[in-house]
Amino acid sequence: MHQRILILDYGSQVTQLIARRVRDTGVYCEIHPGDVDDAFIRDQLAQGLKGIILSGSHASAYADESLKVPGAVFQVGVPVLGICYGMQSMAMQLGGKVEFSDHREFGYAEVRAHGHTRLLNGLQDFETPEGHGMLKVWMSHGDRVTALPPGFIRMASTPSCEIAGMADEARGFYAVQFHPEVTHTVQGQALLQRFVTEICGCARDWNMPDYVSEAVARIREQVGSDEVILGLSGGVDSSVAAALIHQAIGDQLTCVFVDHGLLRLN
User: Fold this and answer.
1) 243 and 140, same domain (yes or no)
2) Is 266 part of a structural domain of the chain?
3) DSSP code at position 46
4) What string of DSSP letters covers 132-168?
5) Domain housing 185
């Protein structure tokens, strides 16, 4: 069993990129919906959970209909990284304040790091004449944190966003208003790698080629001598599933082609 990072998805268009970056560090991760219950979070501990990442979203954390982060996320004792909406939800639910911003940021920004936190210490793209370390990042937000939760310190800022990052290092809670998963954030991969390997303490013991043999063995064990029917549309997901299952059980698999009406012409 591999140590793992749990990514909770709140609807960001780039949640899959978070998983890609984590896996690129050699750490196993899984994406699950942001509204899983507390029992699910606690059950992850027995499966090697070492840290949790909260994705971005188009929603506002203060809206009544917005998804809330399961309370267990902040109770099970593993480090947590909030990204964009994830940061705002963390702030709201732990006693801070989030408000609509009259100066939205979408695109390139330069963020100043504060406080020498474990997450950002030593990471910079350039220095200002005053000696402040700066990060070139990608912002995408219409709301902003305006008051820190108890126990948190400011970790980053921009001229228009005073709290562009926050941290409670005693509990291992970190959050950034920018998106480290996109290539436009120059130090993004270094930031995520530091979170999962240094702060969460994950061993870098996973890679995709090895996952194939692990998946095949697990399928073979699960199926045994049974027969399997697979709906095959020709898309990436069902085609990969078909290849893995066929490698595991051969002629015990029967694929049924499903024309779902969205196939390419001819």
Assistant:
1) no
2) no
3) T
4) -EEEEEEEEEEEEEEEPPTT-EEEEEETTEEEEEEEE
5) 4-199
- Other Cβ atoms within 10 Å of 35 Cβ, number: 13
Of 220, 91, 231, nearest in space to 161 by CA: 91
Q: Are the CB atoms for 23 and 51 separated by under 8 Å?
A: no
User: Which sequence positions are flagged as catalytic?
Assistant: 84, 179, 181
CA distance 260 to 63: 36
When the pLDDT of each residue in the chain is averaged and rounded to a whole number, the result is: 94
81 is written with which tokens? 């990284």
* Number of separate domains in the chain: 2
Tell whether 62 is covered by a domain. Answer: yes
Instruction: Give the tens place of pLDDT for each residue, 23-65.
Output: 999 999 999 999 999 999 999 999 999 999 999 998 998 988 8
Based on the fold, state whether residues 14 and 95 are members of the same structural domain: yes
The residue among 173, 199, 225 that closes a domain is 199
